Amino acid sequence: MARRHLAKQIRELRIAQRLTQKMIAKRADMPQSVMARIEGGEHSISVDTLNRVAHALGKKVTIA
Fold first, then answer.
1. 54 touches 38 (CB < 8 A)
2. Which of 22, 29, 56, 64 sits between 20 and 30 A of 14, alpha carbons compared?
3. Superfamily grouping for domain 2-56
């Protein structure tokens, strides 16, 4: 459940900024196919990868 919620948030942020998966993947130094799996909720995401994706979207990861 949490993975799908996170995937949806990442996708919505990317679309709101009018960015493609390829653009975010390049900024986050990962293949576009990994970005697609992350957004599809099919890929478990490490904290390091989440931080790279967040940075690529101009966001920070905060754990409260």
1. no
2. 64
3. lambda repressor-like DNA-binding domains (1.10.260.40)
**How wide is the angle at C-alpha 17 spanned by C-alphas 15 and 18, nearest 5°?**
60
pLDDT at residue 61 greater than cutoff 80: yes
List CB contacts of 4: < 8 A, sequence separation 6 or more: 41
Distance between CA atoms of 33 and 63, rounded to whole angstroms? 27
**What pLDDT, in 10s, does the model give residues 21-41?**
999 999 999 999 999 999 999
